[in-house]
Design brief:
With about 375 residues, the chain is an alpha/beta fold. It has three domains: about 5-105, Rossmann fold (3-Layer(aba) Sandwich); about 140-200; about 210-360, 2-Layer Sandwich (Heat Shock Protein 90), CATH 3.30.565.10. The protein has nine helices and twelve strands.
């Protein structure tokens, strides 16, 4: 049974609405005071709100504004009841987030039809959300299977080898295998951390207050991440940093935690999808005096760009699980921070340059 809240200061209209909706099997609460209605809405979360505009204590616009300020309540369908038919008034309410208008006097048929249409729309949205969630969870199973099994297979395989043939190995070989097991364990932890982020980012991401980061600090953060990755991958000699001495004034406004996470994901993919003894190049560029571009270039393989599909950042939905989690995280974080991320390929005879570009608003 759907629950509807009526907010109407006219006693006759309020009582008539109450009787009509009760007759049509709705659970109804009726108020002549907007403040009491808001208290009830926040405690009981109705399925729909019918609200008069012109009321003495608190107007319908103020009630709507109060509801729209809360993510928990802003999705409740809100229908204005009004004797005012001016276009400007209707536009104001719609711009504030109202879903519909009923102009007094209205018929019972108009009332019930309008309510049912709004409730049906909400139900359809819920069905789509459930469908989307199921799709995401189905793909998550594929991602978890690949991302966990790869390092786990290494740990189990090498452990079995040591257990079954321990006496056949010398200390150097045993030490080497233990190092490999440790590397697989570290990779498994990294995978676990990444999947925790992935699951949390399937829903709304918490918006963090931006930090003021100078361009000098930005360069230091990026260079340090690349240096750490090159050491981890035993590819220190592959790292090539261009224009390292070039100085830029200005700064960016960006949450440091999110910035580090984005650059780490870009860097990890650059190393993962390129061969040893091929360069990983970092370059900074100022674009049109408004953006700073961080370019990380590697000599990759064609799968890295998924044959042109990469700009959509949807690989995790296309079944390409080995690369999609990191891209999904990058894309989600960039979306809420109003920066852009792209990947371009430049094919050559013997190799293919892959350029991952992070473009952030540049401030003076």
């Amino acid at each position: 049974m759907y629950k509807i809240v009526i907010i109407e200061d006219d006693d006759v209209i309020r009582e008539n609405l109450y009787d009509i909706l009760n007759h049509h099997s709705f659970l109804v609460e009726a108020f002549d005071d907007g403040s009491l209605a808001l208290k009830s809405i926040k405690e009981n979360l109705p399925d729909l709100i019918l609200c008069d505009i012109m009321m003495p204590k608190i107007s319908g616009y103020e009630i709507l504004k109060n509801i729209q300020e809360s993510n928990e309540f802003k999705s409740i369908p809100f229908i204005f009841l009004t004797a005012k038919v001016e276009t400007a008034d209707m536009r104001l309410g719609m711009n504030m987030g109202a879903d519909d208008y009923l102009t007094k006097p209205f018929t019972t048929k108009d009332l019930i039809t309008t309510i049912n249409l709004r409730l049906e729309k909400v139900e359809n949205q819920k069905k789509e959300e459930l469908k989307t969630l199921k799709h995401k969870l189905d793909n998550l199973n594929k991602i978890i299977g690949h991302e966990y099994n790869t390092p786990l297979n290494g740990i189990i395989g090498l452990s079995d080898l040591l257990l079954s043939s321990f006496d056949n190995f010398d200390k150097t070989e045993i030490h080497k295998y233990i190092e490999c097991i440790k590397e697989s364990g570290i990779r498994l932890k990294d995978t676990n951390d990444k999947l925790i982020d992935f699951i949390s980012y399937l829903n709304d991401i918490k918006t963090l207050a931006p930090d003021i980061i100078s361009i000098k600090e930005l360069k230091e953060i990026t260079i340090n991440i690349l240096k750490d990755a090159s050491k981890k991958n035993n590819r220190i000699s592959d790292l090539n940093i261009l224009n390292i001495d070039r100085s830029y004034k200005g700064f960016i406004a960006f949450p440091t935690n999110y910035l580090i996470k984005i650059i780490k994901e870009i860097t990890a993919n650059a190393f993962k999808f390129s061969s040893a003894y091929t360069p990983i190049t970092l370059d900074f560029l100022i674009i049109d005096k408004h953006y700073i571009s961080i370019n990380i270039i590697n000599h990759g393989v064609l799968d890295y760009t998924s044959k042109g599909s990469l700009p959509k950042i949807n690989n995790y939905e296309n079944g390409e699980t080995d690369f999609g989690v990191g891209l999904f995280i990058i894309n989600r974080l960039c979306a809420i921070q109003n920066c852009s991320f792209s990947i371009a390929e430049n094919s050559r005879i013997r190799n293919q340059n892959i350029t991952a570009t992070l473009k952030i608003k540049y401030l003076y």
